[in-house]
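in:
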């Protein structure tokens, strides 16, 4: 009996650990630039997959808590139209005038009779139009220049929602005229397919991997084990951040030692 009771306790503790890992959102704070300078707060959220409420509050409440200047959304908002409407209703509650979005693979694919299939071009454009109608700037292989303080910033969004869709539509010489460059994509494969060594940027933000969702002894288990989690410094200027995301995949609706994440970047002016 004692052995059975101990097993039950262990199972309950394991279940609580999985629930906590899946639904407790962690803020990841990254400081960039001169520590003494005034900071711009950039928030990245990604891979919601319809999830908007967590143990520590709603998505908008958690994002608003850090008072963002820029919000970057790097794809996979939802798996179904019903989820998309719910997610966009929540994002509309975020108190930030500058929200940017790049599409992920789940904007390209729809759930039909429990199976994912490629959306038609018409359906895909309708999804992007719905996102734009929520006052979110969609960057699909295009740029958005913005002046912050006395510096020229550039936000550039790649469409790598399907492999081979990503394009740089600016000349590298034009990129070099900006003092701060933030690049957005959904999949970390962008670093291997479209970013050339001479291409300038300060911060590349992606998602897609969910951090593997299951991590043991600090290592990702499964398909994305060759990708890092969090921040990687490429050189003195370039930083590459892979966000764990907020939701889970349909096939694996849990996380283990890999909590969902809101990434907060404090970038010096």
């Amino acid at each position: 009996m004692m052995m059975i009771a101990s097993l039950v306790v262990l199972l309950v503790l394991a279940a609580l650990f999985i629930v906590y890992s899946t639904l407790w959102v962690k803020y990841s704070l990254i400081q960039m630039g001169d520590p003494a300078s005034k900071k711009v707060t950039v928030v990245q959220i990604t891979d919601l997959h319809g999830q908007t409420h967590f143990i520590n509050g709603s998505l908008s409440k958690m994002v608003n808590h850090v008072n963002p200047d820029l919000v970057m959304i790097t794809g996979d908002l939802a798996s179904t139209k019903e989820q998309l409407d719910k997610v966009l209703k929540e994002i509309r509650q975020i108190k930030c005038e500058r929200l940017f979005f790049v599409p992920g693979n789940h904007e390209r694919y729809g759930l039909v009779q429990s199976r994912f299939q490629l959306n038609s071009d018409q359906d895909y454009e309708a999804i992007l139009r719905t996102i734009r109608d929520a006052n979110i700037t969609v960057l699909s292989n295009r740029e958005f220049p913005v002046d912050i303080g006395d510096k020229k910033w550039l936000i550039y969004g790649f469409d790598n929602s399907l492999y081979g869709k990503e394009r740089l539509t600016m000349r590298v010489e034009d990129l070099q005229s900006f003092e701060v460059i933030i690049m957005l994509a959904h999949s970390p494969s962008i670093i291997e397919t479209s970013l050339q060594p001479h291409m300038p940027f300060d911060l590349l933000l992606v998602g897609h991997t969910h951090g593997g969702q299951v991590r043991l002894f600090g290592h990702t288990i499964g398909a994305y084990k060759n990708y890092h989690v969090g921040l990687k410094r490429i050189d003195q200027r370039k930083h590459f951040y892979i966000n764990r995301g907020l939701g889970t995949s349909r096939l694996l609706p849990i996380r283990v030692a890999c909590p969902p994440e809101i990434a907060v970047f404090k970038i010096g002016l």
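note: The mean pLDDT is 92.
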